[in-house]
Design a protein that fits this description.
Order of helices and strands: HHHHHHHHHHH
Largest sheet: none
Number of helices: 11
Shape: elongated
Strand content: under 5%
Distance between the termini: 34 Å
Radius of gyration: 18 Å
Length: 230
């Protein structure tokens, strides 16, 4: 129930505030479908990042007693979120049927954009989980970081609302590619920002891969100290 209620309540609030009162454009797509399609990959990312960043400290009783590849712990926090995503995605399909919004042929690219969200969550999760072992303030930082990060990602607004000369800044946020790509694959030409992924999207992918590789290196270098510090 919570898996379904969380995005639905968020969708309802954003639809009233941004779609109704502020008139945020969503193209030919009803704003509830527009914002839910953005919330779906975002909430998967936010939940996965929260679980993975605190996973090592939460598993301290296991880490100090049994040896196993520590990488399994943050990875499981990211992978387990796919079950919640699948359930919430069914609600999106119901919304699209209700509002008579048909998916575009580009829907075949949907798994790729979900994979980008997985890679981004895992990359940052590796960094934060390893840092959280030594610096417990990470527990306080992550919720604040996620809250700010959402408003820096085109979840509740189209990317075209940003002046063109500043849109390159969106590419520095790898979740921009995941959210806008996911929405484009589903809704395509009906959107207010209906454009196929281009150079800015490629930049988001590159940054996401860089964070993942550097996170793996940092995690592997510090994992031998986890049992002593934790």
């Amino acid at each position: 129930a919570w898996i379904v209620l969380q995005p639905l309540v968020s969708m309802a609030v954003f639809s009233v505030l941004f779609g109704g009162l502020l008139g945020v454009p969503s193209g030919d797509v009803p704003y509830p479908v527009f914002v839910y399609a953005g919330l779906l990959p975002w909430q998967y990312f936010a939940g996965s990042l929260t679980r993975s960043s605190t996973s090592l400290v939460g598993s301290a009783h296991i880490i100090t007693k049994v040896y196993f590849p520590r990488l399994v712990i943050p990875v499981s926090g990211v992978i387990s979120g796919l079950v919640d995503f699948g359930i919430a995605f069914l609600v999106l399909l119901v919304l699209m049927v209700y509002y008579r919004v048909a998916p575009t042929p580009a829907v075949v690219w949907l798994p790729f954009f979900l994979l980008l969200a997985v890679v981004t969550a895992l990359g940052f999760g590796l960094w934060l989980s390893a840092l959280n072992v030594r610096y417990r303030d990470v527990n306080v930082l992550v919720p604040f970081l996620i809250q700010i990060w959402m408003y820096l990602t085109p979840v509740i607004y189209p990317s075209t609302i940003i002046p063109e000369q500043f849109r390159w800044l969106l590419a520095l946020n790898p979740m921009t590619g995941a959210v806008t790509g996911f929405r484009w694959a589903l809704l395509g030409d009906h959107l207010a920002d209906a454009q196929a992924p281009g150079p800015l999207f490629a930049a988001s992918v590159a940054i996401s891969l860089l964070v993942l590789v550097s996170g793996l290196v940092f995690f592997r270098r510090t994992e031998r100290t986890f049992a002593d510090i934790i």
